[in-house]
Amino acid sequence: MNIKLARLLALTGYLGLIIWVALWHSLLSPHPDLGVGFMLVMWLPWLFIPMKGMIKGNPYTHAWAVYLLMPYFLHSATLLWVDEGERWLALVELLLASTMFIGNTYYAKLRGRELGLSIRKKKKT
């Protein structure tokens, strides 16, 4: 894995997840009981939090942005298990979240090394 591939995976997963979540909850399969606006407000804002750092290529942002993926992993895994009607939608969400996770993890690691950043413990003297 090299830095360019990791960054490509991270941004593909990230931007793809934003687009997919918006399409899913507004056009492809809107919730029958909850409004489209409510669903978008519930699912999209979390993805916009790391946008500035992700676009700039900040390795620190890439590292902590993986924590924001947990609701998307859980949502897609739950729907894969229980909802046959939306299984393919959940599979796409899981693939995009996994792509972003792998890309972010490797990009943060490789770019951090390149910049000399470290999270090693300080040695006791």
TrEMBL record:
Q: Record's Pfam families? A: DUF2069
Q: Which organism is it from?
A: Oceanisphaera sediminis
Kindly state which keywords UniProt assigns to this record, in alphabetical order. Membrane, Transmembrane, Transmembrane helix
Q: Name the InterPro entries for this protein.
A: DUF2069_membrane
What parts of the sequence cross the membrane? 7-28, 34-51, 63-82, 88-107
Q: Does the keyword Transmembrane apply?
A: yes
According to UniProt, the name of this protein is: DUF2069 domain-containing protein
